[in-house]
Amino acid sequence: MTLDFELGKIVVTPLEIMIRIEGVQRLTLQAQTEALQIMGDVLVVHDAQSRWSMKLDSNLIEQIIEITGITRL
């Protein structure tokens, strides 16, 4: 499922998430859901290959939880 937000798009499947940030830099963040944690309204990716986090609004977080089945910490 593709979710639009103020910085770009979030593509979410039960197995992975990809965040595409628009602009000059055209940044893409991608992770498998097993590396994903949700702490409040912050999406946190932490595994052997990558570490990043992004604060999102609660509506987007709820949609990501619904699609991936991840529980909020």
Structure write-up:
By secondary structure, the chain is an alpha+beta fold. The protein has one domain. It has one helix at 58-68; strands at residues 2-5, 8-12, 16-21, 27-32, 36-39, 42-46, 51-55. It has a 4-stranded antiparallel sheet, with helices on one face. A 3-stranded antiparallel sheet has the order 5-6-7, with no helix packed on it. The N and C termini lie far apart (23 Å). The mean pLDDT is 95.
Helix and strand arrangement:
Elements: E1 2-5, E2 8-12, E3 16-21, E4 27-32, E5 36-39, E6 42-46, E7 51-55, H1 58-68
Antiparallel strand pairs: 1-2, 2-3, 3-4, 5-6, 6-7
Feature tags:
73 residues, alpha+beta, 3-stranded antiparallel β-sheet
Principal-axes shape call: globular
Number of domains: 1
Helices and strands, in N-to-C order? EEEEEEEH
The strand order across the widest sheet is 1-2-3-4
Number of strands: 7
Sheet of most strands:
4 strands, antiparallel
Rg, please?
Answer: 11 Å
CA-CA gap between termini: 23 Å
List unreliable stretches of 5+ residues: none
- Average pLDDT reading: 95
Helicity range: 10-25%
Number of helices: 1
How does the helix and strand content classify structurally?
Answer: alpha+beta
Strand content: over 45%
